[in-house]
Task: structure prediction
Amino acid sequence: MEASAPGPPRFTVADLLQLRRPTAGASSLLCPSVPTSSSTSRPRKKHKLSAPAPTWSTGTVPFAPISHPVLLSGTLSLPSATSPASCRSNCFSFSDPSPTAASTPATAAASVCCCILDFDPAALGREILVLAWNYLPSVRLHAAPGVLEVVRWRLAEEEESAPPAKRGFLATVPFHFPDQEPDLATRGLAFGLVRSVSVVFSMPLAKTDAGAGSRNPVGFLAEILCCGCRRCYRATPPEDAPSHKFETMKFVYFVDASSMWRPVLVWLVGRLVYISGLKKKIVSVGDKASHTMLVSSAKTAIAWCPSYRGSLPLYSFPEKCGGEYAGVITGIYSQGLVVELDNTAWLLIDDQQLPPPHSLRVGAIVSVKNFRATCLNFAWTRIVLLATCCKTCITVNYFSSVDSKIHLKTENKGLLGTFVDSLEMPARFWMLLLISCFKQKFTKLFSDKEILGSQNKQGVVHAYATKILPSKCQPKESLIMKFCRHNCGSLRLGSKLEGCKLVLAIPFSNLVFKGESLWISSMLKLWNGSEEVGKSQGFLCDGFSYTSSTKRLISSEDLDFVLVGSIKTSPLSGRLQLVDSTGCIDIFIPDLPPNESLYGIYEIVDYKLALEGPVAYVDHYDVADPLSCKAVFQKLPYKKRLQHLNIYVIVQWRELIHIGPSLSIASYINYRARLFHLLKLSHIFPVNSNIQCQNMSGSLYAEAVILPYVLKFIGQGEFLEDAEGFIMSHSTLLGNSGASVAKSCSIPCSLSFGSTDLCGTLVSTYSSGSEGTVLNEPIVQRREYSSRILLEFKAGSFMKYQLPRINGSYILQCPSGSSTCTMGSCGCVRGGKVSIDSQDSLWSFAVTIDGNINIKGPIGDQSIGGTSVKMDELFSRNNIHDELRLIQPWNDFYHNSYFHLDFSCEAISKKMEEYNTVCHVLNGLCASSSEVLSVSSCVDIMMPKDASVSANFKTKEEAHGDLLISVQGKVENIHSLVCKWERCVPGNEKYSLCIHIADNNHAVYIRGYSNKHSTVGIGPGATVTFHRVCLKQHRLLLTSETYIEVSSISHANFTEQSVISSPKSNWLKDGSLSTASPCLFFHQKYFTDSRPMQFHCRVATVLVLVLNKSTNHGETPNVKVRLAGFILDDGSSLCCGWADGARAELLLRLQEISHLDASVNLKLSKGGNSTNLQYTIGCCLEKMLKKHTSVTVKNCGIPPDFSCRDLDASSVSDKVLSRLEDKLLKFIVLNACWKGSLNVITSALNPDDINGFNVELPVPVQNMRMLWIEEVFPVDPLEEARRLCDILEHS
Amino acid sequence: MDHLLHLVHVKILAADLLSLTRQHTSPPAFLRCGRTVARAELVGIVVSRDLREKFLSFVIDDGTGCVPCILWLNHQYLNASTSSGSSEFDPTTEMALKMSEEVRVGTLLRVRGKIATYSGAIQITVRDVVVEKDLNSEVLHWLQCVSLAKECYDPPPPSAQGGT
Result:
């Protein structure tokens, strides 16, 4: 810019103050659109028009650039004494030039906080021209002016073209002191390197010093490493010589007026200074210690050394608060207390000891000096923590222009803030992380007060943290002692963290994300593990191959986080969910007690995380680790990507730890003038059922049968606990119905609930025949239709929807409120619908005899009909190890019921003559309402062998001519139906799901449309009851009313991969394996010892194959390979390997689905009418072995050549093998010989293993090495290549 | 063990295969460092494919060279001449046809077969092909070729050691 040319318009501080949004300006712009009239127009007004956004407060608005050049000028000075503490510590003041120079006196005093790059003390007190700047208006609405960030500047009077003036050894810092006091002994000097500067603090004076009017002195300390040489001691000022030795540590206390110098001293950290005019004083702190210090006086002057020729001492011990780090700020969290640098290091600011500078914003480059660095090993992640202390100073090297958000901590700390301040650094970081988690998770669900607490009340976070952190109160040391002793607690660092396990209370969006990435890596492993995965993971259904589904169960021990959330019932699925503000996850609590209020926040440490979905190839997507501190601090902007993946947790009730705000409303049952009905729940309607659609409400519905008994309490009190007795009577007794043929009987009984035990009587009627025999018709059945009611759970009482179970007994308070109503006239029965809001309740109910739940028949097993007993046996085999219950067994359910109606044996035995009557009454009480069929009995109904079965069954309920049944079985697989199948059944396009269920003997599939929510938990191995599936034309269909109840899921993983790979990992870890060379056979040395060997090979031919029909039921396919002999080729030589069972199946690849030739297939599968059916080879073999029991195939050829002509197949049963069967066997052998590589682990062959098979080996084979194959698993080419590469490198 | 090398499918790179020493015997024998080899295993990408009625001829490129391969599809005629007309029940031809469908230009194949000559050039008479889905298997094959060559194919045979 030339002096003669019209310069850019001048901008004053007063102009700056008019700006209402973050603005950037510069004195020269390349943009040519500078208005020529700019010299006359008022830039302020102009700018007001261009930036009319007054709403900016603390958001991240980018800086608005002023579109024309502006030149800002003003005076740079030290902050004034009236400015806030944080400004006094770090900022300079920038103000308009002296009033005489200004055009209007009103703007004269205008000043702003100022941060300046390339600071030079020479500029202090002089007018500077700011060439490039950012301005941030005040973030506090009513307070001081904003912050000016000076990017480039020059002195106003400096000639632009003049060369920079040559500086001497020492440059004086122009501080101007008002002369306050007369001379004292101010001969103290300090010449040295400024190491660190403390925060400005006020020191209370000792009582003797404190005069009447004197106030506590305010000042700061500077640590200076001084030169102790004699010359320096004498000479004033020090000489310009490179021989200074900076060894003596001195502390200078800048007090009172000189406390304003801190910003300059911060800039001087790491530079040489010469301070003169200091007083020597002894400062004593309490009674403990005293320090000799140099104290500033009115004569104090500072000069600094711009260029020193000698060497300055290096001093960098990060572990002793001497670290130095410069980096870009990549994140600022927790109101500026946590700063992330370069995406790697975490700077934790102790705001009591270090007020963070204003320009600490995302994108700025800062340098931090004198911190303590430590590596924090949390259970879930590892971070590098830079903890600030009283010596730390942070300087901004480059201002951020991408983000304008200033992070300011609120002053009002409350109990939580005080608690955080009292913590040691590592624990404090965790605490800030925890607060951030809890804020994210619960601020929408609970009030801030409940979560964060207030001035005098602990919040949930506080209470939770005190539970985990050891409550040790560390003694507070005075800042002077800390600073002077160089003791910032460095010794204590890190040690505490080991003692208590600090865990992550993961936000659920991060959890879902973590679940997805676990699933993806699991899928990728599966996919990469087997080259044939595309085929072998398929599942055959009606001749088509579908993607099968699989499951992963992960124990909380393998996950490094705990779950903290509140429990709600999902209005979408009716299921319990663990919820926070970031997301939700389905939760199963098998032993959830009845009538339990689940208000508040729970912590779950011990749980199982289940992932369930179809086996599919999914790619990793490029997002950050969901468990990283960054992901936890900044709310992860994440949406579930894998829509087909179900994620849920399974937790035992005792593992739920209530940590949150409690709702103390005691649930008293008011019984006065109330009747209670006995119910049997007959059905629960799924969320998207017709009923819900008809009513168009957000309610959930269940159907119940009212048993003909009513319960009435006797007593004077209000609440049930005060009742004196009860009567349970048959409802016909209440009314005036013609009970002429009915006789009555009364049985003494007792009712217990909570801690109360009541005595009462059961009064009942029974219809008697002419000879006094009890008519064997259950009363319930007769009245079934009339007494069926609909229970409506309103939105507020969703929690109660979770508790009822189909076939469970309940007591319901009669909503009509009448004590005299009869069954017939009771409103709730007539209306057909009872609304249950949060006030009413259903209580579960059980009948016992002498406290024993099983009375007369399997009441505890009502859900399972007589036909399914066998099935229970089948399942019980796996119960202990493999199954994880999702709902409690019926026995436990009854045991945990709220009410127990108990009959004593004694009382019943007194009525022995009426025993049948009693039984009849009890049966009435416990009447079963619906029968759950096993798969086998379901198949019997679908395809009746004798007509009576189905005829009997048809008497049961039917809907629109179709039979509605309940069926229970073990899920074999679940898959979605693709268009292929839909084309076969036109018009049924809404079918989308097919679930295969089985018991010991039979398998069926159930198809139909179902929403995603209701399939949670239905994976292979789950035991599931389908209530009200439609039996239509020998098919089972899901209807909109079908309620699916998952009783248990299986631990076992059902994919072939896991079966194969589990031993692999063990073997590979075992150092005893000989795996060194890829050509093991070639080197004789490997055979000299009998250690197991692992090698990579292909099947060259099959020598012998002996197949048997399997005697083990449930094995699929029903084929057992008794013995198989293979010639294996590893590229260096041949060997002979023998195997049986699963290993042989894998080498033969029996499990693979193979596209058999249609002609082979059709003739083997009777009744098949499709031309494109696919079967596994094993499936076809099964059919053959049914006929022949055992088949042997011998290879008469000479290895390694192979031809089908040399194969000789024969049947043990002396039946002749058909040509097709012969072809199938040849196909199997050929298929095995033509496949890719596998890894095998072998051991020496024990000749006894093959002796029984009458094996004759051809001559070349007799000379080969004989091995027994222990394990077979797929090759991981990458892993093998790495291993081999390693071997080659080192050989 | 050395005499058995002609029985195994040696893992080999195209360049090495094409530079095998040919002995003009009938059938021709191939020597690698003095050892007879007769079968080979290659991993490479299909760069050309020519399907005829009786055979599929294709070329495998593994980066070191291109090897012509021939997969016969006429086993039934061979069988018809030797056995009593049971070709209908021999799955070999069907399997070979299925295999031929997997040989597509651009796919990574593992090929095993006998080393043969046709019009003076070396080619592979294919016994089986496997489509490799994992591209790392090509790298693994290279490493196996190097390792096997170093340890068992290329060290001088015991007879040669004494002679020279």
Observations:
- Chain A is about 20% helix and 30% strand.
- Chain A touches chain B through 52 residues (CB under 8 Å).
